[in-house]
Amino acid sequence: MSLRPFRNINRKKTKVINVGDVKIGGDNPISVQSMTNTLTTDVKATISQINAIHEEGADIVRVSCPDEDSTTALKDITQNVKLPVIADIHFHHKRAIEAAENGAKCLRINPGNIGDKQKIYDVLSAAKNNDCSIRIGVNAGSLEKDILEKYKEPCPEALVESALRNIKILEDQNFFNFKVSVKSSDVFLSIAAYRQLSKVMDYPLHLGITEAGSFVSGSVKSSIGLGALLLDGIGDTIRISLSDDPVKEIKIGNEILKSLGLRNRGVKIISCPSCARQAFQVIDTVKILEEKLSHIKTPVTLSIIGCVVNGPGEAAMTDVGITGGGKGNNMLYLSGVQSKKVLTSEIIDKVVTEVEKKASELEKKQ
Predict the structure, then answer these.
(1) Terminus-to-terminus CA distance in the chain, angstroms?
(2) Is the pLDDT score of 192 beyond 60?
(3) Are 296 and 356 in contact (CB under 8 A)?
(4) For residues 76 and 187, what is the distance between their CA atoms, to the nearest angstrom?
(5) pLDDT tens, residue by residue, 149-176
(6) Are 39 and 69 in contact (CB under 8 A)?
(7) CA trace torsion 40, 46, 47, 48 (10° rounding)
(8) How big is the CA angle at 112 (ends 71 and 75), to the nearest 5 degrees?
(9) What are 219-239's pLDDT values in tens digits?
(10) For 94-136, what is each residue's pLDDT tens digit?
(11) Confidence check: pLDDT of 198 > 80
């Protein structure tokens, strides 16, 4: 158990839906998901990427299904991965039906662009028959023509109206196993739309800033947008959309939740930016430790501080801590208490040993 207190965020209570064996909404943990960027028809590559995403800490994964070959590939993919798979569907209702029948646990669709009502009904029927949930995915870049004409441009009210219209389509068919997203690449538009929608419905919300950009800019935009909403208690599942490796999306998503005290998973490192006072190379040490401790899933807090200015105070609030000292003698802290001096050359090995030991102790208590 972390010694560092977390802020309590009063989450909005939403309905609970199932995506495979993952429950979304209510008091359930906020789930983290990503989307593969392999060709879905390349079954081996897609399975490999999903397994890497899973190993990083994903709860759910989404794959694109633009054609029949892709939905056919889902049968092999879903049988060889542990994560529930969401099929990303646009326009063609048959792809949605095929995906549900081939193992998808959720369909990402916009009912408004699936076609006439009968096609929508056929998709909902397939979803019901195969215990498959749905995500109503409203996007500022693909609003219905009449809504766009009404509001002249994408705005929060337009996104919310589109979402409510599509919600009604599902409700009219007594289908309630769905979540909703109202995404935009604009941070402020996304925040405003999610806040407005959250006030008028209680279905679970999938949060995301769509097409957020490269690793750095996309991570920053997503942290601001999703962080603001999560602090408001809004959001039940999240996806960080980066022009990068999907594994990195999971890493950033988990870090956002960990920073807000909404998820405890793996080693949380508190480290200084380093300066002339540092007694050892903090930056290099942290990079190495992140890699060597990435296999640990049990929540453990670790402080790596280069000098005694803030080191003892941070170490007092973490499970394991290292504070830089003079002449290569650094202080190891365990559960906030001074333990022993550690030579700079021994920091990596000693910290890895103590963190693994602490993780094992905590795991046995759970």
Answers:
(1) 10
(2) yes
(3) yes
(4) 37
(5) 999 999 999 999 999 999 999 999 999 9
(6) no
(7) 170
(8) 10
(9) 999 999 999 999 999 999 999
(10) 999 999 999 999 999 876 677 778 888 999 999 999 999 999 9
(11) yes
Which amino acid belongs to residue 185?
A: S
SS (H, E, C) the chain: CCCCCCCCCCCCCCCCEEECCEEECCCCCCEEEEECCCCCCCHHHHHHHHHHHHHHCCCEEEEECCCHHHHHHHHHHHCCCCCCEEEECCCCHHHHHHHHHCCCCEEEECHHHCCCHHHHHHHHHHHHHCCCEEEEEEEHHHCCHHHHHHHCCCCHHHHHHHHHHHHHHHHHCCCCCEEEEEECCCHHHHHHHHHHHHHHCCCCEEECCCCCCCHHHHHHHHHHHHHHHHHCCCCCEEECCCCCCHHHHHHHHHHHHHHCCCCCCCEEEEECCCCCCCCCCHHHHHHHHHHHCCCCCCCEEEEEECCCCCHHHHHCCCCEEEECCHHHEEEEEECCEEEEEEEHHHHHHHHHHHHHHHHHHHHHHC
For 270-327, write each residue's pLDDT tens digit: 999 989 999 999 999 999 999 999 889 899 999 999 999 988 999 999 999 999 988 8
pTM: 0.88
CA–CA dist 333, 339 (Å, integer): 5
Closest CA to 193 of 220, 213, 185: 185
β partners of residue 61: 34, 85
What backbone torsions phi and psi does residue 79 show, to the nearest 5 degrees?
-80, -10
Which domains, and CATH codes, for the chain?
Answer: 17-259 (3.20.20.20), 267-365 (3.30.413.10)
Residue with structure tokens 């009604």?
168
